[in-house]
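#lab-general

N.A. 3:47 PM
ok so I finally got the sequence cleaned up, no stray characters, all 356 residues accounted for. can someone with queue access submit it? mine expired

B.Y. 3:52 PM
send it over

N.A. 3:53 PM
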Amino acid sequence: MAIPGIPAAPNGEGLKAVHAIFSAYTWQEMGIRLFWALVILAGTFILVKIFQVSFEHARKRFRNGAQFIYIVEKLGSYTLILAGILAAISSLGVSLGSLTIFAGAIGVGLGLGLQGIVKEFVAGIVLIFDSSIEVGDFIELEDGIRGEVMEIGPRATRIRSNDDLHIIIPNFTVMQSRVRNWTYNDGSRRLHIPFSVAEESDPAKVRDIVLEAARKLPMTMPDDQLHKTQVWLTSFAGSGLDFDLVVWPTRESSRHPRTVHAAYTWAIYEALRAAGIQNANDQVDINMTSLFGRTGEEAVGAIRERDKPRRAKLPAQTEAAPNDAVEAMRMDATRQAGLREDGVRDGGREGGRRRG
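B.Y. 4:20 PM
back already:
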């Protein structure tokens, strides 16, 4: 018995097919078919979730093939979802062959209204197959956003910063941006830590003090033939001597560039201050022949006497303050290593909420 109230199909082939479906079954039969379609969809999403969790465990177990397993996980999930949707449509009595009637209209709709979604999806597929950026890499975008790649989804890439902030970035933006991958290979990264001292300082003494301070930090790699901690004199113009501490930190430290930079800067400052080496200050030298009738040293002495109240000396340093950046990097590394070990996704996200 046909469903009452449904008008006859117009002269469109697609609408005729839809009308034939509704007119071929009773309300009770349509309800049963709709129920089974919903069951198929629910079963599909449960199967996809089990599939994803299984491959997530496999990725953590087989580290060497993690990227290949991730590719299989993503493509397999998309295939299962598509197959489930088609099976649900078929259970409604819709002939999948008749859907080709709507192919032209759907293509136009995708081209106009869904072009942004399609663009992000295609970019996500490209990123999944591109080995230059993989899940687990620590990357930095050209706008300064940096963090560990946690997931490359169908619409966006999710990264987690060292402040445990999750940042969602459209796939196409990641693909088109200039990206710095801090963990592209297993080697270390050379860092340059600039600092300046007063012009009258002894460069050899400055070098020895800074090298000793840098080598005491736990993130500094031991020297070998290809990796050595050095101090470069980069400039001696202006009011002081400009140096770079050139250092090779450990690979794990590469995931914390800002913290590492702060740790070395603090260590350099404490070491130079303890040795009595002054920082470079902007100053202007003025040669004077006379001042209010006074000449030579007498004029200079008058200026110094007048300027004495303004020259308040800083209190002497009693003890070195703790280098909080070193402790912060250790805590960050320990916390993020735990997240990578225990990070089974919960509803598409890692289980951080369950861990509290």
